Amino acid sequence: MNAPYSRQDDKDISIEEKLRALHELQSVVSEVDKIKTLRGELPLEVQDLEDDIAGLKTRLVNLDDEIKNLDTAINNKKIAIKDSQALIAKYTEQQNNVRNNREFDSLSKEIEFQNLEIELSEKRIKEFTAEMTIKKETIDNSKKQLKEREEDLDRKKSELKEITEETKIEEEKLKSKSEKIESFIEPRLLTAFKRIRKNARNGLAVVTIQRDSCGGCFAKIPPQRQLDIASRKKIIVCEYCGRILVDENINIIEDVAE
């Protein structure tokens, strides 16, 4: 190889060099995985808290609108009561000037109807007031929850920022190294590597033979197949899990990445 991981024509790159590159790439991306594991669930927890906070804020806005609507409804009922009281006074006055019992009875029915309207309005005012009280209590509880969530978010963000800053330089170096190795690997092989890695447990797409078994799924590897793998003449995958297999001595020869 002319230079460590310098791009060459695919025909100039031996299978052994490809296997070494794949194994080295796996080692590098596994280190990146460890850094992400160090961060743990913090990124997801931060996202969840941000979603909760957005939901609580929306809820508070909706509750505020509902209280305003209830307040308007209460005021409308109060106006309706005053209107009914004015009509009662009017009909009572008219009863003093009726000419017959029929007119008196008709006015009495109107007065009775307005009294029922007042009772209904008062009932609605009590219902609206009770509902408003409940919504105000919900607002108070939601505000407490919002404050707690925001405090949790600030703490989680601080923790995430601290961990990210501690590992940022190392992660950038590893990513730069992985990009250099990826540029050396042919696109078809790189795509296969990424596909296997995505579907494999712990992100392992390339594994070594360990105790005569696949280092990924631990299925037994026949002796002849182990010899084929150790010869590094072709790329061999585990017939059980689909991972790319390499021998344990893959790094004994001078590392092509150094």
Number of domains: 2
- Helix-residue proportion: over 70%
Could you report the average pLDDT, rounded to the nearest whole number?
91
Largest sheet: 4 strands, mixed
- The percentage of residues in β strands lies in under 5%
Q: SSE order in H/E notation?
A: HHHHEEHEE
**What's the alpha carbon Rg, rounded to whole Å?**
39 Å
Describe the strand arrangement of the main beta sheet, using strand numbers: 2-1-4-3
Q: Whole-Å distance between the termini? A: 12 Å
CATH class category name of the largest domain: Mainly Alpha
In the CATH hierarchy, the architecture of the largest domain is Orthogonal Bundle
**Secondary structure category:** mainly alpha
Number of helices: 5
Number of strands: 4
CATH topology of the largest domain: Helix Hairpins
Outline the low-pLDDT stretches. Answer: 254-258
Could you characterize the architecture of this molecule?
This protein is mainly alpha-helical and 258 residues long. α2 (42-95) packs antiparallel against α3 (101-184). Mean pLDDT is 91; it is low at 254-258. Strands 2-1-4-3 form a four-stranded mixed sheet. Helix content is 72%, strand content 5%. The chain folds into two domains: 10-38 and 186-251, Orthogonal Bundle (Helix Hairpins), CATH 1.10.287; 42-169, Helix Hairpins. It starts with 14 loop residues before the first helix and ends in a 12-residue tail after the last strand. A hairpin with a 2-residue loop joins β1 (206-210) and β2.
